[in-house]
Amino acid sequence: MADSTAPKPSSSVKLVLLGEAASSLVLRFVNNDFQENKEPTIGAAFLTQKCNLPTRTIKFEIWDTAGQERFASLAPMYYRNAQSALVVYDLTKPTSLIKAKHWVAELQRQASPGIVIALVGNKLDLTNETSSSNPLGEDGDGEAAEGEDADGDARKISTAEAKSYAEEEGLLFFETSAKLGTNVTEVFTAIANAIPETSLKGARGPGASQAAARTEDQSRVNLTGPRDAASKEGCAC
Amino acid sequence: MESLNETLWDVVISGTGLKHSLLALALSRSNKKILHVDQNEYYGDAEAAFSLQEVDEWVERVNAVSPSNFRNASLWKTTTSNESDKLSFSRAYTLTLSPQIIYTRSKLLSQLVSSKVYRQLEFQAVGNWWILGEHSLNRLPNGREDIFRDKSIDNRAKRGLMKFLKFVVDYENQNELWQPQADSGLAGFLSSHFQLPPNLQNVICALTLSLDAPESTKVSWSLPRIARHLTSIGVFGPGFGAVVPKWGGGAEISQVACRAGAVGGGIYVLGIGVKESNTSSEEAGNITHVHLSNEDVVKTRHLIQYPAARSTDAKAVSKVIAIVSSSLTTLFKNSVEGSPLAAVSVIVLPVSTVIVEEASQATPIYIMAHSNETGECPAGQCVLYATMLYSEHSKQLLDAALDVFLARVEDTPELLYKLYYEQEPEEENEAQTESLDPSLDLAFNDAILEDVESLWKTVIGDEAEQARFMRFEDREGMSADDDELDEGY
């Protein structure tokens, strides 16, 4: 739909998920849905969702681990060509950020050098900061410390700790609630904005520059004929 | 780590090689409880792909006592201080144990399409085929017009060649011509029936990718392979008849197939193997107890693993994976208008092309050259995969073959890296005398798919009738645009 009306260039971006309950964040983003105790997505090869920016449209191709991270059995193909990654931790679990740091290190080892990584602390709804319109940054942390009903706060990882780690590693940083939808769209918009124009390939639509078609596309063999590829690009947009 | 032993598994699959990964793919929509383990820390088993550092570790393991169908691995790295001839960092490389080409008519491709996993793979063309002659590297004629134009073939041989090409694509209907010679060598058949001179016998035999000399490559084995080669050209575009998946060939298929297994609910554990198993008939339904290498004991209805015993006298192959300091652009140059840029090129060294002090080359050598487009090496370099039948001198012969080849191509590339190893057949094959084990075939052998299908039937049992092998609907589309999926919530 967007392709036929808007002249904006549209590109596919592979985004890989890592960490705790990352699927629930994506379900909120893609379907505006939330399920308690969401298991790793079974039956979904990947989910797609578009993100409209002022100058272009990013079509996220969101890859779930399909549970393969549980026994450390993610294959190199999972990280291959990923332009972005979402590393989620549970801000109510003390050990959760440690695991997230492990995934960040794994991404730095296995993924392409230019990958955009967003570190996301989820379950903001279990803290007493949910009313804050901007739970990010020093303000949020300060409020928590001064908050009167600190008893109801299940937070175990402070914003400051995670944020300073994210800054050290050059990661985008957000705190979200998949349950309430807080900050979820913002995460994906920030990722979309952070992806450098030059790394976008397979640009589609009328505004797409020819330069985006790199030599690798000259060697690609289509097993299903050009018709299939065209219909795949044409629909669902 | 979560516990694996609380579940009664429908099937435990041990090993993530190509065959077992394809089985996992075939079972990925069956709703069976599947535990898929691999004793290695990586996917792919005998079809894995490695970074340079992973190769180091692999070489150590192969040469240790651990049972595997690989042996005598050795590694050589350049020590040059020349900047342009240096190896890049370890992960800039994906060297594969599984560089076999896949003919466009292989059922593997149609099954990867019908099972929808092809969307996660990128296929590239196997473009030019070359034959290393005494003085030069010659491109194999690509079709009839090429043959007519080829000045190196005299008219008598041209007529014979045309006659043979016409015959071979229709060989199934001309049994009377070749059946009496079925068990004879291809060389003699081409000479007596088509008056082809030895150099053209070599060309024809090269198309079979036979590891035996043309004299001992059987006619009945050759004809279907030559026909496959010729009829595969043009299926997915002009100028090529085979493809290779980017990022390490069979290794990539194995990873994609295992991911499909995981998406279907299968549990994946690397670094755990099967130590032993015993089946008790006392329990209902023949439950097998599988002892895993992490001391867990899991229960399953089916256990699929590779046969433990391997025959030692079966045909083995010698292989070299080499990295060279040139992009070898002329090898991959388009020879047919409108064809995709070739990422893989096949170079054939017929019998007696190279000689080492101790012995002459009694069987052909094949070099699959992979450009950096395959994602296996950085720009400005190439990966060469050389194969020949194992013999006492095969290691030296492969070395000599690489030297001769590199001396014939442009800008005299340097060797940067060389991994030598030997590979034994996967299966104990009683009828080993004539054909090559599918796991050693230089082209993907569809016999592997027959094995996968029969294993699939074993696991699925009575349901096999209804379910269709490797035919699935697309899974993706669970996006906001698809309303019908939202209704489920």
TrEMBL record, chain A:
It comes from the Eukaryota. PROSITE patterns: RAB (PS51419), RAS (PS51421), RHO (PS51420). It holds the Pfam family Ras. Keywords: Nucleotide-binding. Residues 128-154, 199-237 are annotated as: Disordered. GO terms for molecular function: GTP binding; GTPase activity. SMART domains: RAB (SM00175), RAN (SM00176), RAS (SM00173), RHO (SM00174). Gene3D superfamilies: P-loop containing nucleotide triphosphate hydrolases. Residues 138-151 have a biased composition (Acidic residues). NCBIfam families: small_GTP. This is Vacuolar sorting-associated protein-like protein. The lineage of its organism: Eukaryota, Fungi, Dikarya, Ascomycota, Pezizomycotina.
UniProtKB/TrEMBL annotation, chain B:
GO terms for biological process: small GTPase-mediated signal transduction; vesicle-mediated transport. GO terms for molecular function: GDP-dissociation inhibitor activity. InterPro entries: FAD/NAD-bd_sf (IPR036188), GDP_dissociation_inhibitor (IPR018203), Mrs6 (IPR017230). One of its GO terms (cellular component) is Rab-protein geranylgeranyltransferase complex. It comes from the Eukaryota. Belongs to the Rab GDI family. This is Rab proteins geranylgeranyltransferase. It comes from Mollisia scopiformis.
